[in-house]
Amino acid sequence: MTLSFFDQFMSPTYLGIPLIAIALVFPWILYPSPSNRWLNNRLITLQSWFINRFTQQLLLPLNPGGHKWALILTSLMVFLLSLNLLGLLPYTFTPTTQLSLNMGLAVPFWLATVIIGMRNQPTAALGHLLPEGTPVPLIPVLIIIETISLFIRPLALGVRLTANLTAGHLLIQLIATAAFVLLPMMTTVAILTATVLFLLTLLEIAVAMIQAYVFVLLLSLYLQENV
Question: Model pTM?
Answer without folding.
Answer: 0.83
